[in-house]
Amino acid sequence: MTVKFRIGLLSVLVGLVVLAIKMGAYWLTGSVALLSDALESIVNVAAALAALAAIHVASQPADTTHPYGHSKAEFLSAVLEGLLIMLAALFILREAYHGIREPAGLDMPAAGLAVSLGATVINAFWSRLLIQRGHAEESPALVADGRHLLTDVITSLGVVAGVTLAVATGLAILDPIIAALVALHILWSGGKVVKESLSGLMDEAVPEERLEQIRDLIAHNAQGAFEAHDLRTRHAGSTTFIDFHLIVPGDMSVYDAHEICDRIESQMERELTDAQVTIHIEPEHKSKRQGVVIG
């Protein structure tokens, strides 16, 4: 069982615990805002299950029908998670609409708020851990799950503030209004997760700082060659795909050219997580006088 899979499994268990706690807060108070918070937790559990399935699929080795591996399964999971976040927001808006039309008083607000805050503390701790470990493991699914939970933390704090204000002022309508405002924030957050995940599915290049690192690795490990051009990159989950053309002397032997390629590939595999490197050797008359100049 991989580290990512263990974290994903724990995320499902944490989601179930938090869901039970938040439903308890709603049952204690009858608050529309707290119900909205609990509805989002149902989505959290579904999203965590989707992330767990994606991590399992993405960990499978390349095969004849998927020669480049299954890493993009994590991006698909992240897109699904973003859509679920947006769906939760629409459910919350519906509940808020009914609450605004027929405001209702709250029962046992202090106990309900205390229970909700307990669930929020759990989510805050777990969302931070998921984002940190997701970046460390280069797992889009875990990062998306962590960001999803972070929106839940913000939601919960907004809900607690809204319910407290409603109780303090006696204005029951503030409860569903706060729920509606929180739902709009969740809707925006879900759209952001979808946008970032789609960039991975569309083979977006690695960030500029990583691209500069790749250029430096080529420049310092390609002694004997003249230049490298047409450098292209893309990332799929934890895998970084790199390909470029390497210009060598026209009279260089295949053996020597291959040695240069091996040196570059070995260094990239040491310094970049799960790098897949493809190098196309060309003679010097193919030089474009651009790209990475080898010193």
Overview of this protein structure:
With 295 residues, the chain is an alpha+beta fold. The chain folds into two domains: 3-201, Cation efflux protein transmembrane domain (Alpha-lytic protease prodomain-like), CATH 1.20.1510; 208-293, Cation efflux protein, cytoplasmic domain (Alpha-Beta Plaits, 2-Layer Sandwich), CATH 3.30.70. 68% of the residues lie in helices and 11% in strands. The protein is built from eight helices and four strands, in the order H-H-H-H-H-H-H-E-E-H-E-E. A four-stranded mixed sheet has the order 3-2-1-4, with helices on one face. Helix 8 (254-271) links the parallel strand 2 and strand 3. Helix 1 (3-29) packs antiparallel against helix 4 (109-136), helix 2 runs antiparallel to helix 5 (140-169) and helix 7 runs antiparallel to helix 8 (254-271). The longest helix has 30 residues, at 140-169. The two termini are 45 Å apart. The relative contact order is 0.13. The model has no long low-confidence stretch (mean pLDDT 81).
Strand coverage percent: 5-15%
Number of helices: 8
What is the CATH architecture assignment of the largest domain?
Up-down Bundle
| N to C succession of SSEs | HHHHHHHEEHEE
Give average pLDDT, whole number: 81
Count of individual beta strands: 4
The CATH class of the largest domain, by name, is Mainly Alpha
Strand order of the largest sheet: 3-2-1-4
Q: What is the end-to-end distance?
A: 45 Å
The value of Rg in angstroms is: 25 Å
- Structural class designation: alpha+beta
Find the CATH topology of the largest domain.
Answer: Alpha-lytic protease prodomain-like
